[in-house]
Amino acid sequence: MKRFFSIFLLTIYLFSFTEAKEVLKIPALIEHYKEHKAHNKDLSVIGFIALHYLSGSQKDSDYEKDMKLPFKAHEISSVSFAIQDLPKSFELNLTQNRNIFEEKNQNFHYSESFINPHLLSFFQPPELI
């Protein structure tokens, strides 16, 4: 259960701090690596990553394929939501003069002490036992 929960949290973390579009380009990375591996049998995965990500953007014969790799070119896109079919006019009719607020008399007695003053005095009324 801990393993599933940790994988779930890692997935949420990755998708919240990376562009999902870039993560979906990982199959293109694998295919491009296979193409490079077919041309050069000695190329390792680390060498491929160093060639494409650590050496800058070199304009070579496969530059267009290189730019389709994940995290090479970032596109700024914005999502906008629009509310369609808004009413042309809006009318609020407040012609009736209703008193919606009701006046109430607030009768309350304020005392500084909530303790019965007879309990504080030395002479108290008789108690029933």
Write a brief caption for the model.
The chain is an all-alpha fold.
Keywords:
single chain; 40% helix; mainly alpha; 129 residues; 0% strand
What report would you give on this structure?
The chain is built from six helices and no strands. With 129 residues, it is mainly alpha-helical. It has a domain at 20-74. The relative contact order is 0.07. The mean pLDDT is 75.
List the helices and strands and how they pair.
Layout: H1 2-17, H2 20-23, H3 26-39, H4 45-54, H5 63-66, H6 117-120
Low-confidence stretches: none
The span between the termini is 65 Å
- Counting DSSP H or I runs of 4 or more residues, the number of helices is 6
Q: Would you tell me the structural class of the helices and strands?
A: mainly alpha
How many β strands by DSSP? 0
Helical amount: 40-55%
Q: How much strand?
A: under 5%
What is the mean predicted local confidence, pLDDT?
75
* H and E order: HHHHHH
Q: What profile does the largest beta sheet have? A: none
What would you report as the Rg, rounded to the nearest angstrom? 38 Å
Which geometry do the CA atoms define? elongated
